[in-house]
UniProtKB/TrEMBL annotation:
Gene3D superfamilies: Vaccinia Virus protein VP39 (3.40.50.150)
Cited InterPro entries: Methyltranfer_dom, SAM-dependent_MTases_sf
Matching PANTHER family: METHYLTRANSFERASE (PTHR43464), UBIQUINONE BIOSYNTHESIS O-METHYLTRANSFERASE, MITOCHONDRIAL (PTHR43464:SF19)
Keyword Methyltransferase: yes
Keywords attached to this entry: Methyltransferase, S-adenosyl-L-methionine, Transferase
Location of region: Disordered: 1-25
Biased composition (Basic and acidic residues): 1-10
GO BP terms, alphabetized: methylation
Protein's name according to its UniProt entry: Class I SAM-dependent methyltransferase
Annotated ranges, domain Methyltransferase: 40-150
Listed GO MF terms: methyltransferase activity
Amino acid sequence: MMCPDDRDAAPEPGSGADAVPENPANGPSSRFFAAVGIVPGMRVLDIGCGNGDLSRFVAGLAGPGGEVVALDRSDDVLASARAAKADPRAAPIRYRTADLAGVLPDLGRFDAIVGRRVLMYLPDAAATIARLSDLARPGSIMAFQEHGRAGLPAGLGDLPLHGRLYDWMWTTVAAEGGDTGLALRLASLMRAAGHRVETARSEGILLEAGEPSFLPTLARVMLPRMQAHGVATAEDMDPDTLAQRLEAEHLAAGGTIVWDLAFLVSARIGAGR
């Protein structure tokens, strides 16, 4: 997977010596969430907001006459989200601490509820969807982007190093209690909750030969978690040479690598199955 969730901080792209390639797993987000029906004046709930990247995007869709409420369990990442510069052309954002696995605070009613890479980390995604549905006005939008383990990566040639890294990352997510198959069940969960699914599709996350890869950055961020769960060690990964070895393997294989899959599902709440 290209990024376990938006809590995995990495240097921002385009900042001199600290610059890193942008995370391509977020590429589908703008295309998907811009098309689910969020319009100016809406009240939007972003669950598991992390660094607030998605919150700021939907705030732009809702416009200055709308409102975004963004929830996360971590006060540290919320502090980072609050530090981001506000856009006067976007809806104001209220960041709140909340545990999505428990009882949600009284937040009022929403026209849209969104989330990215969050349901897979909850102990009972179906129960969370039910609780969120109670916060929505009839006919409101519910839209999620989730990622799932799908037997990748795939390319034109052998990719043993990419494959090992992929397995380490997903094994770590599973060891942390993440549901690595949730994304493939997401549309079914929405229908079971009584919502009408309007969009259910997937986008491949692609790596192109000769272009900077986000994988070395992600691997470094995840390494302490891999070590904590006995999945891989620094000696196994050798992060100091990882970028060069991944690049060499990709160039030898040639072409495009399909690294990950983003599953994108939107529904109308309470509109039947």
